[in-house]
Amino acid sequence: MYGPPGGQPRPLGTPVYVSRPWSVAHAVPVVPGMPSGWGPVPGVVHTVPITWRPAETRSARWIVPPVAPEQLRAPRDSQYRPPQMGPALATPADSREATMTTETSGGTSPHGSSQSSNSARVASPDTAAETSLTMTEQAGSPQALQKRSVSNLLQNAFGTDVGQKAAEPVKPLETQPDPVPSSSTLAARHRDQPGLAFFADAFVAGEDEAHLERGCRATVKMHELPAAGRQPDLEDSGEAEWPLWTDPWRSESEAARGGATVFVPSGAGVGSPCMYFVHGGGFEWGSPLEDGYDSLCSRIAEGSGMIVVCPDHPLSGENRSFKAPAILDALVKGLRWLVRFDPVAKERRAEVPQILLAGDSAGATQAMSILLQVLAEDALELQSPLRGLVLISPWLDLTCGSHTYVSNAFSAEAHTGDLAFRSPADENRAGFRGMALTYAGSAGLLKDCIVSPYWLARDGRGESTDVLRKLEKSGLPIWICSGASETLAGEVLDFVQRLSGKVPMELWLHEGMFHDWVMYATDRPFPSKEAAMRNLMDFLTDVRESSWKRRGIQYYIDEWK
């Protein structure tokens, strides 16, 4: 922080070098007026020591009367420039232009394709500190500054003759230009990008749903199951019927629910691989055609060539009698229909299909619960077609014990934390626990390894040990993406770390992203969404071609525009 004596402190344009994306405390933003007693933020490393000019050589001309904060302006290049904390001091205009040109030019993506200004840095946890936040050595970078002496820095700041520059009169502050941003890494600037501010302002204004991406893709055909007038084979004895149910929350004309919606991409037909996608909504809301799921499912179908089947499964909630065991039974029954019948021909299959389970948010919880229940029951008919699992922003721990319910609480002032859940931390956790208890039906199921999959990794005894052993033996790969700033990030990361080496998994943590960000759209560049979808398509392709390899935990750090 710096500023004239008696004036309002100002934050420094400090590049932040982060060894891990989540290590910077979101709850301690550097804002005007922050007390000076705050200690260093974890994960921030200043690679160049701060050298202050000796007090006896400072000129009284540099001391100005106290002014209002809005009057403060950065000095011109020819006048005194206070030293900035961190390795990147203000650089000449030509150096700044070179820096910005380097950072905003196209680059090579992790997938080998050329990217625009939204190009991201990707690194595994073992190499993140070395590779994910590196930048080209140039004027203003830490590497260049380490090679320059303190006298050169002073000469650059004050001019050739320091005494002569100090003797020149200081122009009134109101005539000074607006500050010029100093060079910094993409990670240091990502929290202050217009795209993130756009969503924050829109969500705070209650316009969350207005920015959900909606509508089925033009190249994808959509139809509903079961088809009118068709009955399952008598030999199935109802085991493979799509469950029908009545929703008391809806009007009489819309109360009849059940079945599924099928998204068929061009080129797909009888025998094509399928994805069984369970929609989210806190276990209490949503349907295959609401809240943007038609857009998400059709996009997955279009990009992967797979047929996506999204069940309209029973929901829990007030005045509804459905609880976790009954809801999971209904979802397993729908999976059994998909294993036995082709969703395009609507006839019994001649061959065993390829099926991937998937879901988002609470639906991701249920998708994993389906897999674990199938394994626990040794249902080989349902297990043999399964090829993998896709979890988008999953809610894995129904006890809601992770620290990120608090540490990732939303801050309207700093535009940090989870934009999707903006209640105070304690209220946020209480709301999640209320939905979890309503869904489970009893507190005893909140730590059940099938209903609450996090406890598969945490419990380590009884049924969870047996189910985990079966999951390891199955060898099914699990792909997960989560926002590093979302409420559920802590339990997701802990879950993956605990099962590392036992279950083949690939986790993508996206810096700055909020819960279910892939469901939203803006006319501004949204690189994290595109990257998440691209990584998902790569996973689906690799699984279908049996070429997938473990990637562990990956961190996606991008620049908002």
Find the structural class using helix and strand composition.
alpha/beta
Number of helices: 17
Amino- and carboxy-terminal Cα gap: 26 Å
Query: Which descriptor suits the 3D outline?
Result: globular
According to CATH, what is the topology of the largest domain? Rossmann fold
- Give the overall pLDDT as a whole number: 73
Structural topology:
Elements: H1 93-104, E1 107-108, E2 114-115, E3 121-123, H2 128-132, H3 142-146, H4 150-158, H5 162-167, H6 186-189, H7 194-204, E4 220-225, E5 244-246, E6 256-258, E7 260-265, E8 274-278, H8 293-304, E9 307-311, H9 324-340, E10 355-360, H10 362-376, H11 380-383, E11 386-392, H12 404-407, H13 425-440, H14 454-458, H15 462-474, E12 478-483, H16 489-499, E13 505-510, H17 527-544, E14 552-557
Parallel strand pairs: 8-9, 8-10, 10-11, 11-12, 12-13, 13-14
Antiparallel strand pairs: 1-2, 3-14, 4-7, 5-6, 7-9
GO molecular function: hydrolase activity
Biased composition (Low complexity): 113-124
InterPro entries: AB_hydrolase_3, AB_hydrolase_fold, GDXG_lipolytic_enzyme
Quick description:
This protein is of the alpha/beta class and 561 residues long. Helix content is 30%, strand content 12%.
Structural notes for this entry:
It contains 17 helices and 14 strands. By secondary structure, the chain is of the alpha/beta class. The protein folds into two domains: 21-105 and 137-177, no CATH class; 204-557, Rossmann fold, CATH 3.40.50. The strands form three sheets. A ten-stranded mixed sheet has the order 3-14-13-12-11-10-8-9-7-4, sandwiched between helices. Strands 1-2 form a two-stranded antiparallel ribbon. Strands 5-6 form a two-stranded antiparallel sheet. The two termini are 26 Å apart. 39% of the residues are buried. Residues 113-124 have a biased composition (Low complexity). It holds the Pfam family Abhydrolase_3.
